[in-house]
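Attaching the record inline, Q. Sequence:
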Amino acid sequence: MKKLLSMVLVLVLVLSLGAALAEGHTIALANINEKGVFGKLVKMGFENACESRGWELLYADNNSDGQTAVSNAESLALRGPEFVVDMNVDASVGQTIMDIFGAADIPVLAVDIALPGAPFFGIDSGAMGTFNGEYMAEYIKENWDGEVDYCVLITQIASGDEVNKRVRNCAVALEDCGIKVGTVEEIEGQNDTAVAQTRFTDFLTAHPDAQKIVVFTINENTAQGAYAAAVTANRE
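Structure, as predicted:
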């Protein structure tokens, strides 16, 4: 479902830009990263759309890192695009990024994670968290008698409280649906597959007797890491 949502978001975003810009324009994309399917789809969608319309695309990979995103903003601003789509995961540098583009009089669209004062394109993180929690609650009722030992939330603290509602609202929804949750535990995944795998492996090692564990993640990168940890431990 996450891959389907990613493709839908990419398609809508590209079509929206197509309606806003005419041929011959230059736009810039500061992508979230190229570690997972979502970032790769975004890049591919922009490249294909720009090529078919005769636009020039200026590209940078923020690599899920705030300082890289700032450096990319400085570089892109110097190249003078007419419009920037920025996907930055570090809320602490959001204003800096906006100041850079603002000084160059370049309009910005923030995607996935908000930037101060910029139009925002993305999901409602709180609603998504609630939906996922409610969906999981049905599974738990049908398969685990309405009880779990641990609810593990793999967070992305740098992105701010709003984004982390994607996982924190899941835990709230479980309890609202009547699920008996033993312990809710947060693990910082840093939007990185390897980090998530290592830290969830540590969790599994520390809780060898836990049988019913539900895991919610911000995105596919950390989901892949958590799943790999469970498979390696023979606890999937």
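Residues 1-8 have pLDDT under 50 and may be disordered. The radius of gyration is 19 Å.

More tomorrow.
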